[in-house]
UniProtKB/TrEMBL annotation:
Keyword vocabulary terms for this entry: Signal
Pfam families per the UniProt record, alphabetical: SBP_bac_8
The protein's name in its UniProt record: Extracellular solute-binding protein
InterPro entries assigned to the protein according to its UniProt record, in alphabetical order: SBP (IPR006059)
Extent of the signal sequence: 1-34
Organism: Clostridium porci
Amino acid sequence: MKKKVSRKTWILSGLSVLSLAAAALTGCANSGQAEVSQDVPTVTIWGAGGQEVREALQTIADAHNADPKYNTKAKVEVQFVVSGTSEQSLEDRLVATYQAGETNTDFDLIALDDSAIAKIVSRTKEDFFDDIDTSKIPNYDNLVFKDNVVGTNFIPYRGTCVYLAYDSEVVSEPPKTADELYQWIEEHPGRFAYCDPSTGNSGFSFVANTIYNQLPQEAALSNDPKWETEHTEEWDNAFSLLEKLHPYLYQTAGKVQYPIKNQGVLDLLATKQIDMTPAFANMVLSQKNMETLPDNIKLTQLEEPFLGGLAGFMIPSIGSDKEACLSVIDYYLSYEAQAIDWNTMFASPVVDPSKLEGLEHEDWLAETDMSSMRYFSIGTIQTDISKRWTEEIGSLAR
């Protein structure tokens, strides 16, 4: 495994002291890392997504590197591709490395949402990611999401869910079902928006729910193309409904607008240009904590929940020290690391939340209970949904 100079430590202001590891992070992170022997293997975590995900991964990595129980087994470094930039995507980097025939790289651990994995496998090979021996991960026993649709080569480390975010000063009784939401949209023209689903999964969740509410429950957990090719009537009905709703959505300059990215709709909500939108819970909570979203923005979930998913670790076959990777995964599943993840980006824990200590805004954790998560993992069908939406619905706004 390659030895590299440590990246600059990321420490979020106000991070609670959770344990000896976190105390070392906030008080003497640099000296803690300096004590790590140069002979300790370096495990590079590669991730992709928003800046808040990057900061959370790095903050936990710093705490790991200051923990004497773990820093004698591995040193963690984080490489991250921030979404929305001109950088080559993590998927493309992995595929290019694979196609070049490289077998000993610093792609040691990959931290991705489960929905992104099928795209990588489709461009490499079925066994591109190694099976993970969970018997060598003691904190695996902490995990409450052991069953996942990816399989034995995927270990979840955080959860994510889309909720209905609304302005409680305007909406006293938010919709409870999808049908009630559709009715509310028509009764309140221009006060609802969802982002272009090809640019943000909060918008994708609205579109996907419109389709999958009409399909059997198991369809949301399958990438089998039959759910698309053998259920054309349900798909057609869903897109007809989206077309029907189109004129009632947020408008500017007399035209319906689909904001770009997940942040786009939250900006409209913060400035009272809309009253309601699907949004990722952690984004809403983080921005309320930073006071860029006001306290009157609340979250609720429908009886047919919006999509939820898991982000987790996978070990590519082209990486290096597998044993060191297992030790790093073990730390990220510790109660200490899970608490840091919540305090850094309000990521839904994948362990029993009652075991976590030193949490900020513990009441918000109860509001976003992962037990109600509707798990979506549909592989490349997601691409088909976004493409059809662009052709049939997005084109209406041009």
